[in-house]
Write a structure and sequence with these properties.
Number of helices: 6
Strand content: under 5%
Mean pLDDT: 87
Helix content: over 70%
Distance between the termini: 11 Å
Number of domains: 1
Number of strands: 0
Low-confidence stretches: none
Length: 127
Amino acid sequence: MREGLLIVLFMIALTSLCDTVNQLFLKSAIDSLNFSPQFNFIKIFKFIFQLLIKPRLWLSFVFSVISLCIWLLVLSKADLNFAFSADSMHYIFIALASRFVLKEKFSYLRWLGTGLIVMGIVFVSLS
């Protein structure tokens, strides 16, 4: 493999990792609040205020900005078609983080689908 391709793949993986951490912080922030969806403006504003004072929400934004910066570097080095296909790694990272960090249940069918995504990434990377 070319050295440039490995660097691009590493940056895409780093972007996906930052996106995963971003989503974990968002999930953690939202789960820490008691919210039942209701169309009551006062409760919605109270919910938004409670969410905005959560440090995890702001950490999520930080990882989102880092991911965006890395993604812009990726786009300057690689074709969009390749980069976007390889960015599907975030599906794998999210699945693993959901299972092992958040302790969510996964069926065999979901793991099979994640495995198919991995195979697709490999095929796109080799083409």
